[in-house]
Amino acid sequence: MAAREPDGAPRRPRSGRVRGRDGRRRAGGVVRGPLFRARPTLRQETIIDERKQLSPWKIDHGTTKTMLPAARKRKIVELVSENDGCSVEELADEMNCSKATIRRDLNDLADRQLIERSHGGAVPATTVGEEQSYGQKEVQNLDAKMAIADRAVEEIQENQVVFFDAGSTTMQVVKHAPTDGSFLAVTNSPLLALELSKGDTEVNLTGGTLRRQTRALVGPSAENFMDRMNFDLLFLGTNAIDPVQGLMTPNEDEARIKELMIEKSRRVVLVADGSKLQNRSFVRFAGFEDLDMFVTDATLTEAQREPFENAGVELVEGLDA
Asked: Among 13, 215, 275, 318, who pairs with 299 as Cys (CB 3.0-4.6 Å)?
């Protein structure tokens, strides 16, 4: 029978005096010692699990600190984007892991369209809505654009009305064009208009709203101007050339202006360097059947050449930069 206090209540054990069956002292009902250990509460277990999930590192046999796969892949995407591309060797050194691991990660990230594989490494993924600024495009593939322009201006004839689409490649065409006033120039780019005005060429601007990203004039005023005009020759630029869909650009307003300039031109010459091939963008504005000539620095593969040839487009390719 349980011992009782003088008032009849059950006698409570003194703190720290109760012993377990193994003879060890207990405090607060929990046996102390290596054989018995208090289990964490549900809240404590939750916190431990969250910390494990949040930590990007794991300890390998208590000696080597290794990044967890998911965190490593996020870091790879970040490094590739920040550096505009990385090699397998660079990533392996940065991540402190093997090249084989990096290659597997890159293949997985490429399958998820988070990066694009390149020879010996990876480059940032190109999204269909991505649009570089005019300043960025102006300095890219400059030698190729100059070679394209040098050949393209041979298409200009005396007394023609020539439309120059806004863009960095068409800027080079303008810089290589005759300055003796032998043709009338029209453009939707204030930058190109300023360059054309350095000579004796008469220049017309479409008017409209200036897009800061590309320095191109767009909108209702520009469209109204296009509706009233006709052109002998158009030098056309593009952001992407897809073998199935045709020519594409990231912006709907610019796509509409491009559609109108093509519609109003008797002859259309596409000028684009090889980086535009096999790409896609947000809005389609023309098919291969809308072109008369394609001038590029690239040497086209059979697959790249096929849609142009099927549409009867004259190809000038493989120009020396």
From this structure: 318
Q: List the Cα angle 75/78/79 in 5-degree steps.
A: 85
| CA-wise closest residue to 189 among 242, 258, 98 | 258
**DSSP 8-state code for residue 126:** P
> Amino acid identity, residue 71?
A
SS3 104: helix
CA angle 273, 144, 233 (to 5 degrees): 60
CA distance 15 to 25: 10
Q: Is 80 exceeded by the pLDDT of residue 60?
A: no
Q: Tell me the three state secondary structure of residue 216.
A: strand
Integer angstrom CA distances of residue 298 from 206, 244, 295: 32, 19, 9
Phi, psi dihedral angles at 203 (to 5 degrees):
-125, 135
**For 108-146, what is each residue's pLDDT tens digit?**
988 876 788 877 888 776 655 555 565 655 556 888 999
Structure tokens that stand for 293 in this block: 């000539």
Q: What is the pLDDT of residues 162-213, one digit of tens each?
A: 999 999 999 999 999 999 999 999 999 999 999 999 999 999 999 999 998 8
**C-alpha to C-alpha distance for 239 and 128, rounded to whole angstroms:** 10
The structure's pTM equals 0.63
pLDDT value of position 259? 98
Lookup: tokens for 99: 């090249």
Residue matched to tokens 């101007």: 225
The order of strands in the sheet holding 240-242 is 240-242, 246-249, 283-286
CA distance 317 to 298: 6
CA atoms of 273 and 144, how far apart (whole Å):
6
